[in-house]
Write a structure and sequence with these properties.
Blueprint (H helix, E strand, L loop, with lengths): L1 E5 L4 E4 L2 E5 H10 L5 E7 L9 E3 L5 E6 L7 H24 L2 E6 L2 H13 L5 E5 L3
Helix pairs in contact: 2-3
Length: about 130
Amino acid sequence: MKLLIISHTPHYRKEEQVVGWGSTIREIDHLARIFTDVTHLAPLYQGTAPDSSLPYTNPKVRFAPVGPAGGNSLLAKMSYLWQIPDWIAKMRVEINKADAIKLRCPGGISLVGWLVYCLLGKRKPCWVKYAGN
C-alpha cells in the first residue's frame, strides 16, 4: 500500500542529502515500515538546514519537493499565488499514485492538499494530523 504525506515540513539539502525536521522524519521513517512506499510532498528551502534536521533512513521513503511559500512580509505571503498552481499539479500526480493520504496540518500546503483531494473525488483513506497530535 502506497502512502502520500503532504506537509509543510521544511526540507534542505545538506551534504548531498535531503534533510528535514528530525521528529517528522523519524515519524515518516516509522510509517514506512507499515507501507510499501511512502512519498513525502513538502517544501524544499535554500539555505542552511537547522541542527534538528535529519535525513530519511528508510529506503522506502521518497521526497517529492515543492517550492516554499509564505513568510512575514506581504511579498512573502503573496508567494502562495505563484506556488499553489505547482503544488496542485504535483499533488494531482501523487494523489493518483497513492492508496492512502496523510495531511500534516497546520499549513497552507495541507489546506491545498485537502482541497485537491476533495475536488479529485478520490475515495481513498485519508487522515489529518494536526500539529503534535
